[in-house]
Amino acid sequence: xxxxxxxxxxxxxxxxxxxxxxxxxxxxxxxxxxxxxxxxxxxxxxxxxxxxxxxxxxxxxxxxxxxxxxxxxxxxxxxxxxxxxxxxxxxxxxxxxxxxxxxxxxxxxxxxxxxxxxxxxxxxxxxxxxxxxxxxxxxxxxxxxxxxxxxxxxxxxxxxxxxxxxxxxxxxxxxxxxxxxxxxxxxxxxxxxxxxxxxxxxxxxxxxxxxxxxxxxxxxxxxxxxxxxxxxxxxxxxxxxxxxxxxxxxxxxxxxxxxxxxxxxxxxxxxxxxxxxxxxxxxxxxxxxxxxxxxxx
Length: 297
Hints:
single chain; 297 residues; mainly alpha; 11 helices; elongated; ABC_2_transport; ABC-2_transporter; transmembrane helix; ABC2_TM
């Protein structure tokens, strides 16, 4: 008995120390990357889409939706927030992984014990930060254009928070899968095109009931629709529920569907990332640099 206890304790301590080092590395990466993005011209890229969205919302503030008491501006705010969540989850992490793969960052991380999981955890944390910060800024400014759009109770703020985070976790793993699969940065447009296509048919800017029946079924199978629905639950007045399918916010269904997509992504992403890590080598990084020098991307 004593021998087993003695053997188990060092093993547990070693595993704990290893994961402690991984998390410390991820935290350092998060601080450094956020500092770089907050104090560089990259900050402008955070603000362009929210600024354009708010401009459009300003001109739509007096237009109602399908004869209801809800304006297009009210419906547009949770739509813009959902778009921020989905694009950060699918496009942001994919582009980041492709860049780090081609510039040798992931190869260097692979050479350090615990470096690869530390880097990937840091990438996820950075993308969460770069999604939530623009969302809060957009919501703060929207209150001056659309009265009453801010969450009206602590429960509404809590709903806004958990839907945003769960929406990110439902999309980030699939963004990582796309980043691991795409061979060159030039192919990132395929992910972007698909993402914006899903945004267009998922009812985040206009009631899903206005779309054909088959498209409604398709949209409800995707995390994009449920992210938008959850954010509308947090931000829109109670009378806006008449615009939803079944005239219900379907909070439990929202949590369940986003949870299912999160689990599916967490199963698929490690497989794709392990395959990408196996392909990482000095010759692959050199070929990527040669391609950039010759083609510019």
